[in-house]
């Protein structure tokens, strides 16, 4: 799997911004569901040129979603996805996400 296929997009939320601004830089990404920790760390190194210390991976379950239409209420779920939190070495940062 190529590096650009592993990392789909960065997650820019209030919680991830606080983790990114802390002393040990932690970046949060939406990743390919088939990727593992080692592939994610290698993709960060290839795409952004940074050294990763660790990577935490979790599967995010889809949330229930309701919509009302002509035929009545339709119950469904949003898609499940995979999230990775990558910790960088001290002094490293990803310029593409920072600014």
Low-confidence stretches: none
Helix content: 25-40%
**What general outline do the C-alpha atoms trace?**
elongated
How many DSSP-defined strands? Answer: 6
The largest pleated sheet is described as: 4 strands, antiparallel
Widest sheet, order of strands: 1-2-6-3
CATH topology, by name, is: Alpha-Beta Plaits
CATH superfamily: RRM (RNA recognition motif) domain
Radius of gyration: 16 Å
Mean pLDDT reading: 93
What is the CATH domain class?
Alpha Beta
Task: Provide a concise account of the structure shown.
This protein is of the alpha+beta class and 99 residues long. Helix content is 28%, strand content 39%.
What is the topology?
Layout: H1 3-6, E1 7-10, H2 14-21, E2 26-31, H3 37-48, E3 52-60, E4 64-69, E5 72-77, E6 81-88, H4 95-98
Antiparallel strand pairs: 1-2, 2-6, 3-6, 4-5
Could you explain how this protein is built, in words?
- The chain is an alpha+beta fold.
- It has one domain (3-98): RRM (RNA recognition motif) domain (Alpha-Beta Plaits), CATH 3.30.70.
- The protein contains four helices and six strands; from the N terminus they run αβαβαββββα.
- The protein has helices at 3-6, 14-21, 37-48, 95-98; strands at 7-10, 26-31, 52-60, 64-69, 72-77, 81-88.
- The chain has a four-stranded antiparallel sheet, sandwiched between helices. A two-stranded antiparallel ribbon has the order 4-5.
- A hairpin with a 2-residue loop joins strand 4 and strand 5.
- It is elongated.
- 16% of the residues are buried.
- The mean pLDDT is 93.
């Amino acid at each position: 799997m190529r590096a650009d296929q592993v990392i789909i997009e960065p997650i820019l939320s209030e919680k991830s911004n606080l983790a990114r601004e802390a002393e040990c830089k932690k970046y949060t990404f939406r990743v390919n569901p088939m990727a593992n920790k080692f592939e994610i760390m290698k993709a960060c190194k290839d795409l952004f040129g940074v050294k990763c210390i660790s990577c935490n991976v979790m599967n995010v379950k889809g949330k229930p979603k309701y919509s009302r239409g002509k035929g009545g209420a339709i119950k469904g779920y949003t898609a499940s996805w995979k999230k990775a939190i990558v910790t960088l070495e001290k002094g490293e940062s990803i310029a593409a996400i920072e600014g």
